[in-house]
Design goal:
The protein has one domain. Helix 1 crosses helix 2 and helix 5 crosses helix 9. The two termini are about 25 Å apart. It is elongated. By secondary structure, it is mostly helical. The chain contains 10 helices and no strands.
């Protein structure tokens, strides 16, 4: 199921990649943008990444970071980085949708407090509701934004470094770096929100009867 969700997200990752290439290209050719106009520059930039390579580029870039590294670009904890590690002791208590009595009944024993056991226990419960539409949607949103966060980190280092070298105007280069940093901050925050939302949505659906 995770694989199919990632496949559905690839076109959106391609849009992010293409947009970042376009912004870098525009920053490098700032003077051309003033003279020739945005439409001419857009046509030239789109030729940099042929549409036929869109899927391949998205897959390769997205595969440069492991799932654990992507998680660390979203959450900065040194250990037990996933929100599932705090599913029962933290997030379940904060979400009014979660009925802890239902969760414990579905779990079958006392809810764990150890971070590793919490994540395992949460995943066990996730597998019982992973086909629920609400869970599927928030899972897809989380995977998309987690992958976007990983890409934003790569862009910050690689495109940022290229920008400092290739953009002729220092002020433009600094603005461009600011855009890359702002992109990372925004998608990281969104990914963190959806990651926690995935954890609590699973717990909220546990024990809820399926519609006839």
């Amino acid at each position: 199921m995770t694989g199919s969700l990632k496949e559905k997200n690839r076109p959106l990752l391609w849009v992010m990649i293409a947009a970042n290439v376009l912004v870098l290209h525009a920053a490098i050719h700032e003077n051309a943008l003033r003279v020739e106009g945005f439409r001419a520059l857009l046509r030239e930039a789109m030729g940099l990444l042929p549409v036929g390579l869109a899927g391949l580029v998205a897959v390769v870039l997205n595969g440069l970071l492991s799932a654990d590294l992507k998680a660390r670009t979203v959450w900065f904890w040194r250990k037990h980085v996933l929100p599932g590690h705090r599913a029962f002791t933290n997030y379940a208590k904060k979400d009014p949708r979660v009925d802890l009595a239902n969760v414990q009944k579905a779990y079958g024993s006392k809810l764990p407090t150890d971070p590793v056991e919490q994540n395992r226990g949460w995943y066990k419960l996730y597998k019982t509701v992973d086909e629920n539409p609400a869970v599927l949607q928030v899972h897809r949103d989380f995977l998309l934004l987690r992958d976007c966060t990983g890409l934003a980190v790569l862009f910050l280092f690689f495109f940022g470094g290229a920008g400092l070298y290739l953009i002729p105007a220092p002020k433009v280069a600094l603005v461009y770096l600011g855009i890359l940093l702002a992109q990372y901050v925004l998608v990281r925050q969104a990914a963190a929100t959806y990651g926690v939302r995935l954890v609590t949505t699973v717990l909220a659906r546990v024990g809820v009867p399926k519609p006839e």
